[in-house]
Description:
By secondary structure, chain A is α+β, with helices and mostly antiparallel strands.
Amino acid sequence: MITxxxxxxxxxxxxxxxxxxxxxxxxxxxxxxxxxxxxRSAGIASRSSIIHxxxxxxxxxxxxxxxxxxxxxxxxPLPVVPNLDRLKAFLLAQPEVDTxxxxxxxxxxxxxxxxxxxxxxxxxxxxxxxxxxxxxxxNVKMVEGDFLSSGPGILISQYQNxxxxxxxxxxxxxxxxxxxxxxxxxxxxxxxxxxxxxxxxPLYYENVFNYINFMxxxxxxxxxxxxxxAAGSLPAALEKGLAAAxxxxxxxxxxxxxxxxxxxxxxxxxxxxSGYTMVAVVxxxxxxxxxxxxxxxxxxxxxxxxxxxxxxxxxxxxxxxxEAFIWFATGLIFLVVxxxxxxxxxxxxxxxxAEIGTMRALGGEKSFIRRIFLAETxxxxxxxxxxxxxxxxxxxxxxxxxxxxxxxxxxxxLVGGGPLPMVLSPWPFxxxxxxxxxxxxxxxxxxxxxxxxxxxxxxxxxx
Amino acid sequence: xxxxxxxxxxxxxxxxxxxxxxxxGVSLAIEKGEFVAIAGxxxxxxxxxxxxxxxxxxxxxxxxxxxxxxxxxxxxxELTRYRRVKIGFIFQSFNLIPVxxxxxxxxxxxxxxxxxxxxxxxxxxxxxxEEVQLSDRLKNKPNELSGGQRQRVAIARALVTNPLxxxxxxxxxxxxxxxxxxxxxxxxxxxEVQKTTLIFSTHDAHIMEHARRVVNLHDGLFxxxxxxx
Lengths: 463, 229
């Protein structure tokens, strides 16, 4: 008790310096508690938003694809997912799988009437099975029309429609006839007349999904003539050659050799090739993702998988990047705190040389001196830590129900839009406590070493 | 029974390349209950001798025996425990713990010993508080006391554990002469009543007159050892 008494009163004697340190520790603790709660909440919200609206727990795509597909990125059109029927059957037979949704990404042109003349406007879209997609991913709000339930056709985003008007002078209306111009890889154009069935607003990640529209899968197959030969019915050498050609353009010439032997067309089986380039798989429990993916990999269905965070690329990493930044900032604050605290303690020890020497002369062991300085450090830093935690807790509780309102740009990148629902967890508090205790301990190593080196002679020499 | 025995004690320090001989072979025996002044001018080695007796410094050569124990063989922890039990200190600059009040300063050595209950500690402290006439200053901090009052707190603190020896390094140096005399008288009466061995250093001729034995020191050597009435 005497050590605590001396520690408390010594802190009180050096009030101004100690208050400065306490404020820094409290601020660092607050930043740690509130920052990690915020980033954890953002991580949870972002994960939930991405998994439940775009990617599922993982995405299945063609093994021959050179790129990892992402609902958030439109690069070159991806290869079609092979063995789709077998793949669907396998996935739906897995007890861990809740639902699956196949879809494709592509881009084309819409040919529109503009006061008697034609204008072609760009059209980026997901091709989806409407009912399945809408049931699984509630990621749009219909402004007008319906989500392709009234018949095949296309949907455009409200933003896109505004953009067409601004840029091209045309504004689409629900029910209007439009012609989709599908661009084939050979340079040909396939014109497919259809209707605009609805106008929607994306509910998440507007900064990406304002530019993305929808088309039903049946129309998509018509636009791109998805009919084909079932994989496995082609001669093995030809299949091998085709696969090699996907990897290297030079390999295409190999098809002219032995692989290019005459094909017996009577043995070929037709298959309904849908054109789907990805299949999003939603699990009942996301912890089973690796197990299901491993099981699927063993099926030999010529597909690969990509977990949700890989498939959503940059967006899944925003929360992690923010967390890294908060840790960096907090680390910097605690480094400064440790440095200032260490210096303050050293100055205090120098000022208290006679006092320490006296205690040693009167029979205080080194461990007694050590306990005094440890007590001073812990009392100050833990008190400041509790204040920081309390402020953090109040703010977290204050924003838990309504969610933390964020500027739209930040919100879009962090959680896909809207206020951030704060998730209260004990971990940020435990982490803060551990960090403060560790920093306190580290900051006192050198000062305590100096203090315990003071001999009783120092008391005698204090004249 | 000898409280202290110094046998041909030498102490030198290195100041850069120069060797400074603080003690050049001194021998001294002090019996239990003696009231001894170690006198001499500044730099004569008085404090060095007190440091040796107080187990806070080691001789470069020679032997120091406290209550029959050769202390230079004890390690730091053993020396600390030895000091706690055998020795009480009164410092020239009082050296009270600034954050503790009068009562707590006097109680401090008892807390380090951890062998008394709270009630016993309180009783013991109060006995010495009355002895040094500071009953009305119990709650005061050292900075609220006069020099004489501070030194009386230091005396009570040195006495409270009933040590074998009390060492006082120039205990009156920071006091006016009237207060200095009162302090020495107080120490003398404690010596008479409690039979505590009291050794103090001084360079003040008036103060050393109170001692029953005066050992004179000059340039690290004893020049005289005179018993007084």
